[in-house]
Design goal:
The structure is a homodimer. Chain A is α/β, with parallel strands linked by helices. Chain A has helices spanning 20-28, 43-48, 73-88, 107-114, 128-136, 156-164, 178-187, and strands spanning 5-9, 31-37, 57-63, 93-97, 120-123, 147-151, 168-172, 195-198, 206-209, 221-226. In chain A, the strands form two sheets. Chain A has a five-stranded parallel beta sheet, with helices on both faces. In chain A, strands 6-7-10-8-9 form a five-stranded mixed beta sheet, sandwiched between helices. In chain A, helix 3 packs across helix 4. At the A-B interface, helix 1, helix 4, strand 5, helix 5 and strand 6 of A face helix 1, helix 4, strand 5, helix 5 and strand 6 of B. Strand 6 of chain A pairs antiparallel with strand 6 (147-151) of chain B, so a sheet runs across the interface.
């Protein structure tokens, strides 16, 4: 009997926003793996830490986060056979994933390498998009609203088209694209009512109007756009 | 001291997909409220049931789910002052919400009526969109993908524009719009690779190719569109 590969969604950062299912698996799984960028502390590992009983085998996945075409692929190439060896020996392996494993998650790199050969189970998690709206106390979408999630890494034209085709929008992966995206939002007349969120549900959480931000933002920050919708809720169609 | 109004995201249906935070609050809160459509069993109540210690005051919110302009508003009009009375007496009230409270959630109707007058905390939950992708073992979005969530209640033109402006799409609230939306997807040449999901993570879960469905679907079913993306993951841009 080979082991099961788990992709565990850990949620947005607060260890209490793990699901009961993720918690149960972390309490019993003999091997955990997690991204450990550039030797820096692993955010995924730190979210899971209060839930680990100790004594597990740990496989940090070394990632080079420098700006390049396909960062970190070497890390996954090295980790995949290590994980496969544990699975082949009958040991379950839990891969720790910030947010949700299938929503821009780095788990995809391991799923692509191992998903065809081993039993795999995905445990969905709370996305930072939903957590940001909760922290901001601003409902994301209601009634017939269309919702779009757009990576800031896209060129202006693709971002503009995506923003135009939705009532509410989350823009992720800001990092070095922040100033450009902010300018685009201003050109579209949508700065009013837009929110900036960073480290939601974690220490150092920041949620504030986009108009009150500077020109830099970390990669794991996001913008929520509300296109002039009134906060009052009057009903919903079926 | 007035009480706190909690909007509790319960996740997609499996009681084990509650967060630890939702579980803690349900274990201690003196009053719970939940939608109870047309006297039918409340799905939200049934997801929370294994986590309730018993002895709480329960406020079912009667909703008329018939097709009308603003269904159920009378239920919220009646429930809001009842909830307000508990809050004013210093008792916390947890409103049980399927999925995430701010993502097309009916909690919005209570938030609009009470959010300005009482301390409110939103506990985000796992969305059925992420859960459907997990059950289907099909990653939702990777790298620079744009993601759109569209209610099936929209007219064809708005749906088409939303689908065109994204790489992956979730279409919610199918119900009586299912046959029309299926036809639109076929016209756009996107039936291949599209998935249908119903009751994800619940008893009776169904996930199958859209091509293998009939012409009816319940309201709480969804379609996932993958616009020709290859499943292999090659890297991600920063």
């Amino acid at each position: 009997m080979t082991g099961t590969l788990y992709g565990i969604g850990l949620g947005p950062g607060d260890p209490e926003l793990l699901t009961l299912k993720a918690h149960r698996i972390l309490q019993t799984v003999p091997v955990i793996a997690y991204p450990a960028p550039d030797g820096a502390p692993s955010l995924a590992r730190s979210i899971a830490a209060p839930h680990l009983p100790g004594g597990q085998v740990e496989l940090p996945i070394g990632l080079c986060m420098a700006v390049e075409r396909a960062p970190g692929q070497g890390g996954y190439d090295a980790a995949a056979p290590e994980i496969a060896a544990h699975l082949q020996a009958g040991r379950d392996v839990a891969v720790l994933c910030e947010g949700d494993p299938f929503f821009y998650g780095s788990f995809l790199h391991l799923f692509a390498r191992l998903g065809a050969d081993f039993a795999t189970e995905i445990v969905p998690g709370v996305s930072s998009v939903m957590a940001a709206a909760a922290c901001a106390r601003r409902p994301l979408v209601v009634r017939n609203d269309r919702f779009a999630v757009l990576p800031a890494t896209l060129p202006d034209e693709a971002l503009r088209a995506g923003i135009e085709a939705a009532e509410s929008v989350a823009i992720l992966k800001l990092g070095r694209h922040f100033a450009r995206v902010k300018r685009l939002i201003a050109e579209m007349g949508l700065t009013n009512g837009a929110l900036y969120a960073e480290r939601v549900t974690q220490a150092g959480e920041q949620v504030r109007p986009l108009a009150e931000t500077g020109d830099t933002a970390p990669y794991f920050a996001l913008i929520l756009l509300y296109k002039g919708r009134e906060p009052a809720i009057l009903g919903h169609d079926r």
